[in-house]
Amino acid sequence: MADTATAIQNVLVVDDDPVLCLLAESYFESRGVQSIWMAQDGKQAIDVLFDRAREIDFMLIDLNMPELDGIQFLRYLKKCDYTGPFAILSGESGAVVKSAQSLARAHNLNLLGALSKPFDSNALTQLLDKSKIAPREAVAAKDEPAPVTPSDLEAALSAGHILPHYQPKLDVNTGNVTGAEALARWIHAERGVIPPDIFIPMAERYGLIGTLTDVMFQRAVVEAAHWHRAPWTIKCAINLSAHVLANLDFPDLAAERVNAAGLDRGNFIFEITESQILQHRASAAEVLTRLRLLGFEISIDDFGTGYSNIENLSEFPFTELKIDRSFVRDAINDPFARTCVETSVQLGKQLDLRVVAEGVETAEDWDFVAAAGVDEVQGYYIAKPMPADAFRQWCLKQMCQ
Question: Comparing 2-142 with 145-400, is the CATH topology the same?
Fold first, then answer.
């Protein structure tokens, strides 16, 4: 608890229940929090944030309040681009709380989780410890990343400064390494780490996503050749953008690149989300079908967060289904998330798809998805994404155990 207590020095509690506010105040005081602000509704909370948004390390927010309720307050947080961590504490039904969580994620807010009333200090402690809130200085650095321009991005792509980091995937039954997802990472010499959620949207906006995908694929093929020489049978997963799905020549280009390296196309998985399919449905059908004809595998990523899930599964030649991390993360405590995971596994099995659970962060997550019947797992509980050399060393260590 020491690390979390050190990180949280200023707290805002937004709730109209005076007893709960007293309990919350006592809880945070016992953990050495320096400043605790109380707001009886969203309007009062806005006043606090207007003056002290940069100081707040954590917020505890009720949903049902007078004047301005918690749902309206979430909209305000989105409008002012608030990025600080917070949790929902509510006595409302599970369905209402679940909807509020979905809304917070739709707003891309930093929601750590939801707790049920009455106030439970142990549950809050577990949530905070699991979330590992960074000290305010680190959060500020993340909230205000060094500015980069499209020209910077183009130069980084040309110079080879954006490289894949590989996150392992394990067989849930044997624990063996079965694959890895290649994730783009930009380490800038002067600005430090440039988050993917900054440079990937920039690449899409300024017509550089095709170049980024090509760089990632080219590097992944080179790394896969190392695995082949090891020799390891490890599949490499690469994310495709909507832009690539509009490129009808991509299947042939992909096949030529893998053939030139002397590798098996079946050891490459192209991951695509439902929202990307919907942007270019006709061309996506052609591109994905031709990739399958050429021997590549196709994964539907973030399953459960898009639209017409079952329809898409039946219309496109997927070989893998990845259950979204938001369901895996909440499944232990949330009946709806648990049902989504179990139903997704059943559907995947019926359609003869390999089922992967991503976002596995704890032993409890692993045990749950294993019992649910997934085939593979991926997440921080296993390992974070790592550079190619580090990934090879990690694999060697795993295989020697």
Answer: no
Q: Count helices and strands (H / E) in the chain.
A: 19, 14
ω into 164 cis (within 30 of 0):
no
The token pair that represents 2 in the structure block: 């020491």
Q: pTM to 2 decimals?
A: 0.69
Cα dist from 311 to 307, 318, 339, whole Å: 9, 12, 20
Can you spell out the DSSP letters for 157-170?
HHHT-EEEEEEEEE
- Does a cis peptide bond (omega within 30 degrees of 0) precede residue 251? no
Q: Among candidates 341, 398, 400, 401, which has minimal Cα distance to 177?
A: 398
Q: Hey, what are 29's tokens?
A: 């005081």
**Domain 145-400 fold:** TIM Barrel (3.20.20)
CB contact set of 272 (below 8 Å; sequence gap of 6+): 239, 240, 245, 284, 288, 298, 299, 300, 301
258 Cβ contact list (under 8 Å, min separation 6): 221, 264, 265, 268
Element (H, E) at 387: none
Q: How many CB atoms are closer than 10 A to CB 282?
A: 9
CATH top-level class for 2-142?
alpha beta
* Contact between residue 242 and residue 280 where contact means Cβ atoms under 8 Å apart: yes
Domains of the chain, residue spans: 2-142, 145-400
Helix ranges (H only) for 169-208 are 196-205
3-class secondary-structure state, position 75? helix
pLDDT tens by residue, the chain, 401 residues: 345 555 788 899 999 988 898 998 999 888 888 889 999 888 888 888 877 767 888 999 999 888 788 888 898 888 777 888 899 999 888 888 888 888 888 788 889 989 888 888 898 988 888 776 655 554 444 444 446 889 999 999 999 999 999 999 999 999 999 999 999 999 887 777 888 888 888 898 889 999 999 999 999 999 999 999 989 989 999 999 888 898 999 999 999 999 999 999 999 999 998 777 777 788 889 999 999 999 999 999 878 665 445 666 778 899 999 998 888 887 888 888 889 899 999 999 999 999 999 999 999 999 999 999 999 999 999 999 999 999 999 999 888 77
- 358 closest CA partner among 332, 334, 327: 327
